[in-house]
What does this fold into?
Amino acid sequence: MNKPFVKQVVLSGVSTITFYNPSHNALPSGLLSNLEKEINLAANNDAAQVVVLQSGGDRTFCAGASFNELINIETEAQGELFFTGFAKVINAMRKCPKFIVCKVQGKAVGGGVGLAAAADYCLATQYASIKLSELSIGIGPFVIEPAVSRKIGVGAMSEMTINAKQFYTAQWAEQKGLYATVFESKRALDNATELLVENLKTYNPEAMQAMKTVMWAHTSHWDDLLMARATISGRLVLSAFTKEVLQKYKTS
It folds into this structure.
């Protein structure tokens, strides 16, 4: 695998959505747009009863925003548009009437933590440490904060945000409620996910849809909230501080 992609396979009632980027599964705007599209397709596909979200590769689930793309942002409108991509993906996950099970096989940073938090159920390996690095580059986890705080609480979210250079272990994430279970290997993760979705397929789809609505109560304002947060990030990414820091991460 050497080219970025988002693909969806629907088989035996399960929609498996896989995203991949050779650059540590970072998400540029194109991949974000495709990811939103595939989630919406799964949401409207009667052949899919359950959705599994995963990334390619072994040790990195998602490195968050594409730094190369952030470096090239020149206007607030461009910045807002980029971060709107994360907002749309999270809202698509929130509004999908099917349960979304997320498999986190490796490290999750920034937006990657947001994806895990926006899933309805998340399983991980022992290698799936997490970090909210945004403050260290001059912005903040504004768009993903509602999803992260909803899942692990404001206290844990704040701790991660302030300690922006620190990775927190998968076990810590499990204790805080981001991960339901942490496994020793990717194979064990795959097996557990398969067993879970096989069980979910036997449940009443109407009951699962109604339960998801209950689980996501009081979030209908996120359509506007996350867009407003994208505006904040889009402005801050143009700051001299952020531009200088991002140059250190620039790759050819």
About this structure: The chain has a mean pLDDT of 96. The longest helix spans residues 76-95. The chain has one domain: 5-186. The chain has eleven helices and nine strands.
